[in-house]
Write a structure and sequence with these properties.
Blueprint (H helix, E strand, L loop, with lengths): L1 H17 L12 H9 L12 H18 L7 H30 L5 H14 L10 H6 L1 H11 L2 H10 L12 H35 L3 H16 L5
Helix pairs in contact: 3-7, 3-9, 4-5, 4-7, 4-9
């Protein structure tokens, strides 16, 4: 009986080796879920489904609406400017990565000894995005979100194509994958957006508390003072 049990066990093991169970596919996350995972520093992998235009819209749109709805939108001018700078920097980083990809394609026939120099020269000559210009009126109206979204849209399709064909994280022999570089670029925007959201919540909560104590007039004066300082680039 013991011998038969052992034989069956060995036979089962042999069958398992010949017919391994299919690997469990990695979980699929929506872009919104990936955004939350990125902010929590959890692993994310971006592929051809990633939409840069939608990502920027989802990050800055709600914040711009909150700023525009505030009685004194320019109170947040400094933090909004930080978001603008972050979006511009991230888009510029991604634009350079896309230019490098195009340069590598066009220099594939160049001898290896000269290929690196050729790629660098082509990237240096490639068009770079001009920084978006945001006015005080754009902040007051919430139009700043539209401007930033359109700024990113220029590179959205090419970035999705790059991510669709790029080597995934963990298979790049110690180099950062395109997915990881995209993630790093977006983190710059996350940081600025988080700071703006915190500032909004602070001012909103302070206003509620002040109004609750019956000192609405002094609150309005304080808001005006903050707006004046913010317009001069000074954080109260």
């Amino acid at each position: 009986m013991t011998t038969r049990t052992r034989s069956l066990t060995a036979l089962d093991a042999a069958r398992a080796r010949r017919n391994p169970r299919p690997a469990t596919p990695p979980p699929t996350y929506s872009q919104a879920e990936q955004r939350e995972r990125r902010r929590k520093h959890l692993p994310v992998t971006y592929d051809g489904r990633f939409d840069l235009t939608e990502e920027i819209r989802a990050i800055v749109g709600p914040l711009a609406d909150r700023v525009a709805a505030d009685p004194h939108p320019l109170t947040f001018a400094v933090q909004v400017d930080d978001v603008v700078v972050a979006v511009a920097g991230s888009v510029r980083t991604l634009a350079v990565l896309l230019a490098e990809r195009q340069a590598r394609r066009r220099t594939a026939s160049v001898p290896v000894s000269h290929r690196g120099a050729a790629v660098r020269a082509m990237v240096a000559l490639a068009d770079k995005p001009a920084d978006p210009e945001i006015t005080d009126d754009d902040i007051r109206s919430g139009q700043c979100a539209v401007i930033l979204t359109e700024h990113a849209a220029t590179y959205s399709t090419d970035l999705a194509d790059y991510l669709a064909h790029a080597v995934p994280p963990g298979q790049t022999r110690g180099l950062l994958s395109m997915s990881e570089q995209t993630e790093d670029a977006l983190r710059e925007i996350d940081t600025a957006a988080t700071n703006l959201a915190r500032r909004l919540s602070y001012v909103e909560n302070l206003r509620e508390q002040t109004n609750g104590t019956g000192t609405g007039t002094s609150s309005t004066e304080a808001d005006r003072a903050r707006e004046t300082l913010a317009s001069l680039g000074i954080t109260p």
